[in-house]
Amino acid sequence: MELKKNAIIIIGIIIVWALIYQLNIFLFKEFSSNRFVHWIFIPQGVRIVSVIIFAELGVIGLFLGTLITYFWNGFTIGNPLIVALISSINPYLAVHFSRYLLKLDNLFTRLSAEKLLLISLISALFNSLFHQFYFHMRINAGFSRDSAVMFFGDFFGSLILLYSMSIALRWIKFKYRTA
Asked: What is the pLDDT of residues 102-140, one digit of tens each?
């Protein structure tokens, strides 16, 4: 039963990742620096939420989801396994670092707007530096420019998703409290 539940969680993360990734490409195509670097990258928020809620299962779902979107979009830059590993491990490291730095409990209760901002900032920093370091070493890509664009894209994208979810959850709580 536990295996079935875990498989459903992982498949759910893969589906959400792939759909949000494709939606991001569609909505913000004009805001991309290149095929890998976007000025607004909402899937970064999916990474954070997946890891906060599902921990290691989130990492597995993100790893497999990244592999799927890598091939689905016809990417040929770098090794797909390394790209997927960077995409899935970075949010895990960033969430644990944020938990330690901000003294958060395991369930991330009492998240304030300031703490969401800091988690987004830390996550964007981890992701942009590790991705761009790999791409720079692999294909000698423009490290500083692409790192800055990826950082801002991940930061803004994760803020959009995290704040939207926070507002939606507060609205749902309010609706059920007043009903």
From this structure: 888 776 677 788 888 899 999 999 999 888 888 877 776
Report how many domains make up the chain. 1
Give CA angle at 6 (158, 116), nearest 5°. Answer: 20
Q: What is the pTM of this model?
A: 0.88
Q: Give, for 121, the enclosing helix (H) or strand (E).
A: helix 113-139
Question: What whole-number distance in Å separates Cα of residue 169 and Cα of residue 122?
Answer: 23
Q: How many CB atoms lie within 10 A of CB 31?
A: 14
How many other CB atoms are there within 10 angstroms of residue 123's CB atom? 26
Range of the domain at 41: 2-178
CATH number of the domain to which 66 belongs: 1.10.1760
DSSP at 110: S
62 phi and psi angles, rounded to 5 deg: -65, -40
